[in-house]
Amino acid sequence: MTTATPASDETRSPEPGVSVGPTSEFSLFFRVKEGRGEALRASLDELMRTEGYRPGEYGMAVGTIHEARFVLFDDDTRLAFFTSFDGQWDAYMEDFFNSGPTLALFNVIFENTEGYEGLPDLATEKAFILGAQEKAAAYARNYPGTVKEIRKAIRVNAAFQRVLDHPDAAEALQHPALLPLLDEAGD
Asked: Across the strands, what pairs with 86?
């Protein structure tokens, strides 16, 4: 595992992470500054109380993220960050850098890690992240689709359920063109 120091062009992979379809994994490993484990846990707790990150909320500031996990290990001396996101790495980095309050929270988290000196610009952010990034040896997904497509599918399903609940739906649903939709709804 590497520490959060900028990677040279010779050690940097052309596209960080492994991709499956439109989605890429992202794995970062940091060393926690001595004596900062408790402060880091408090910062992570604060993140989990922030709009979009609270359990049961699904509105992270960077809308292409499927999930994000922070893991403290080795007696709080190491921090891992794992996520997967849609699209290109550079676009993800730009979205993150421009995420406003979320970037401020991540500053509070990463200030507890070695090699962190703030993120004054996008180039510094990319160098810091690449210095901590390790490409996964394997990455698989259990579902296709981007976050945008999945959210749309959830909205369409909710709308279809409202149609099914409508008192006049029985007659309309007799049309043969709707059979494939009804077959799927039966699951």
From this structure: 23
